[in-house]
Design goal:
Layout lengths: L1 H16 L2 E4 L2 E4 L1 E4 L2 E13 L2 E10 L6 H6 L4 E7 L6 H15 L6 H9 L10 E7 L2 E6 L2 E7 L1 H12 L6 H7 L2
Antiparallel strand pairs: 1-2, 3-4, 4-5, 5-6, 6-7, 7-8, 8-9
Helix pairs in contact: 3-5
Length: about 180
């Protein structure tokens, strides 16, 4: 009987410790905490181009939602995590992709200064297994690379355009959008 109780406790502890989701070659946590805000995994998928997996993308929210327009316009804490899974993702390609994403998602509300500042966060080498956390709360976007603060950009309109890269009517990847919303 003692063995069963000990085994049960270890299994429960293991489940709590290993609360992660495997997405392609990336392992993503089911819960994260940023700036004292606990966020849960809403959904995750792979961004691919020409059948090549580029990064695992995950959306974290305070409570699950499948309504992209409410998520985009919300000022509640949220995060998009990008886990690079390919050596083909370079600094230049990331900057090009983000620039194209803003062109597709913005309705003119994000200023060119805000976009330039955000893009400058990718001005250092990007390699496989880099992890970017794009955290938004109360109209401020804070970006981290491998846990290191890269900078912030103020403005709810900017946040909406940025999250629109993945969640708008013209997302970077329709399959990834669908996966993030489930």
């Amino acid at each position: 009987m003692k063995k069963i109780v000990v085994l049960s406790v270890l299994l429960l502890a293991g489940i709590a410790i290993n609360a992660q989701t495997k997405v392609g070659d990336a392992t993503l946590p089911n819960r994260i905490s940023i700036n004292n805000n606990d966020l849960e995994l809403n959904g995750a998928g792979i961004r691919e181009k020409f059948w090549i997996d580029l990064y695992a993308g995950a959306l974290y929210l305070t409570s699950k939602s499948g309504n992209e327009s409410q998520i985009i316009s919300s000022e509640q804490p949220m995060c998009i995590k990008l886990h690079i899974v390919s050596g083909l993702v370079t600094q230049e390609k990331m900057i090009d992709a983000v620039t194209e994403g803003f062109e597709n998602s913005t309705t003119g509300f994000a200023t060119s200064e805000q976009i330039k500042k955000f893009i400058s966060f990718f001005n250092e080498e990007i390699v496989r297994d880099n992890v970017f956390d794009i955290y938004a709360a109360d109209g401020v976007v804070t970006t981290y690379k491998n846990g290191k603060l890269l900078g912030t950009v103020d403005g709810q309109e900017f946040k909406e355009a940025l999250f629109g890269i993945w969640l708008s009517d013209k997302p970077a990847d329709k399959k990834l959008k669908k996966a993030m919303l489930h």
